[in-house]
Design brief:
globular; Barwin-like endoglucanases; mainly beta; eight-stranded mixed sheet
Amino acid sequence: MQIEVLKSKIHRVKITEANLHYIGSITIDEDLMDAANLIENEKVQVLNIDNGERLETYVIKGIRGSKMICMNGPAARRVTVGDTVIVISYAHMDFEKAKTFKPAIIFPKADNSL
């Protein structure tokens, strides 16, 4: 049996940019991606703590060390620069493996640094 479990979580980062006219996705500082075990083009959920919005998109690699969290495309309408969000990804895995799997969960500082 396969189940879906939490794989990665960036808990509470600030939106630094919103770019409505980009093709879509969320741009994340590569340092944060590495720490949370996320890869470019991976599907993620973005949960906006400030307004309750939840959306799905995919990750674009941002400049390493930039502390960037940029919501792109139509999803940019669902955030405001300065909003706090949680970024989550999930993985499908065997039920028995899932019992011992440990997700990568990070807690960045208020300035999006590690």
